[in-house]
Amino acid sequence: QVQFVESGGGLVQSGGSLRLSCAASGFSLDYYAIGWFRQAPGKELDGLSCISASVGDTYYADSVKGRFSISKDNSKNTVYLQMNSLKPEDTAIYYCAANLMRAGVASQMLAYEYSYWGQGTQVTVSS
Length: 127
Hints:
The chain is mostly beta strands and about 130 residues long. About 0% of the residues lie in helices and about 50% in strands.
């Protein structure tokens, strides 16, 4: 059974940092791109960052470019999202998922290409 589990969320002050983890089980990170999304209350799901199956290629949405960094450890089957300089508008539930349609990264993140969504982890940034 494939399962993605996000962790690392919490409450942080504006300007602070958090590192989210996405642990995959029953699924190898060697073949598909993995992405991070978030959804704030009353807003649509927003693609933030993804990393290709072979380490090296990454994508960042403009809203997080320069502040967030995605990485992965294939030996631990885990993808990370390092979030720095957090802002109140970063408050949302953060999800990871696998892109079963491509191994590389594209110029945009389309939610319908992703599967095996985790339960999400809440990130709250106070001002």
